[in-house]
Amino acid sequence: MLSSYKRSAHVLVQQLKTQGVQxxxxxxxxxxxxxxxxxxxxxxxxxxxxxxxxxGQGQTISQPYIVAKMTEVLRQVGVAxxxxxxxxxxxxxxxxxxxxxxxxxxxxxxxALQWQAKRRLHMLDLYNVAMKHGDGxxxxxxxxxxxxxxxxxxxxxxxxxxxxQLEDQGALIVPLGEQEQQLTLFVRKGKQLVEHRLAxxxxxxxxxxxxx
Length: 212
Prior knowledge:
Blueprint: H1 2-18, H2 24-32, E1 53-56, E2 59-61, H3 64-76, E3 82-86, H4 92-98, E4 103-108, H5 111-123, E5 129-133, E6 146-151, H6 160-164, E7 166-176, E8 181-189, E9 192-201
Helix pairs in contact: 1-2
């Protein structure tokens, strides 16, 4: 079964290449990270399909292409060091980030998902991740500033707290919008923010307020 998963992961990475993902380090990590550990047993046969999958609590594990692309974009614009992830979810995107950046700080508002994600990361011996149970709209002020911020749910508008926690030359990548969403990159240049619209996407909403 393990060799079957490895073959499936290799095929997936070839698909990512044809879709335009070029960063060899990102592709290598995507191929070596066991995505089947991050999905429920009944969906394991779909683990290496290039599609989002439900993980319970109304949340999803993101499409591998989107995980790879968002990670690649951060690396392309020079993000290094400490990265903030908003929306730990299954922990899959977290695991990819943890293998490519020095430190990952990840915020999740649903306690059950956070607990499962932490267990999976430890199974993979990924210990450079700090986790917080909290409202993603607020970021993680005590850990700021961040070289990069990645938001894995769609916000109606750019969370101002996140922009405030971005260091100079740092980058924030976030899906923006409700019915129509655009993956959007913001790069801080001193007091200015340079905005780049990247692609139409579909994410679950970034919920603000009370945590569960």
